[in-house]
Amino acid sequence: MAGVAAAPLAVHAQVRQRAGRGKKDKEKPPDLEIVELKVRRDEKLITVDGRVRNISAKPMKGVVLFFEFLEADHKMISRMIAEVTKDAVAPGEDGTFETQMRDQSRAVAVRLDAEDIDGRYFNVDKPGPYEIE
After folding, report:
1. How many structural domains are present in the chain?
2. Does residue 125 form part of some domain?
3. pLDDT per position as a tens digit, 43-61
4. DSSP state of 12
5. Is the distance from CB of 95 to CB of 63 less than 8 angstroms?
6. Is residue 47 part of a domain?
7. Residue 99 sits in which domain range?
8. Residue 93's domain is classified under what CATH number?
9. I need a surface site. Which of 6, 40, 114, 122 has the fewest CB within 10 A?
């Protein structure tokens, strides 16, 4: 899938805690690389497409992405879930995705999280935020 990777906004990333994540995960290398990501407004929709890569040493049991849409003050106003694949993703393999949702007029950026289909958290190399074009 052709696309240009969007540059992350220059902001201080707020550390978010999720169940099962703690200090140990902060030092853990990333599992999932955002190879390409494009977030844009098309008429009355927000379209998100891109490509991710398994950069861990283990196969992933599917990939599910969570897109958190942010206002100008970086507070989350909406969340969208996109399944990249239910199939296993071997180390070094890529998965592509494209999804849409109704436009969120206050949304200016998006941040990503990822899990496998069983809910195991993946450490993402560049979670954002990414500007909405």
Report:
1. 1
2. yes
3. 899 999 999 999 999 999 9
4. P
5. yes
6. yes
7. 23-131
8. 2.70.50.60
9. 40
| pLDDT, tens digit (0-9, with 9 covering 90-100), for 9-35 | 322 233 333 434 444 456 789 999 999
Cis peptide before 129 (omega within 30 of 0): yes
Output phi, psi for 23, to 5 deg. Answer: -55, -40
**Model confidence over 69-107: pLDDT tens digits?**
999 999 999 999 999 999 999 999 999 999 999 999 999
The span from the CA of 102 to the CA of 59, in Å, is 33
The reported pTM is: 0.78
Q: What does the alpha-carbon distance between residue 35 and residue 60 come to, in Å, rounded to a whole number?
A: 17
Sequence-distant (6+) residues with CB within 8 A of 124 are 30, 31, 32, 34, 112, 113, 114
Residue 7 has pLDDT above 60, yes or no: no
Give the contacts of 53 (CB within 8 A, at least 6 positions apart): 32, 33, 35, 92, 93, 94, 95
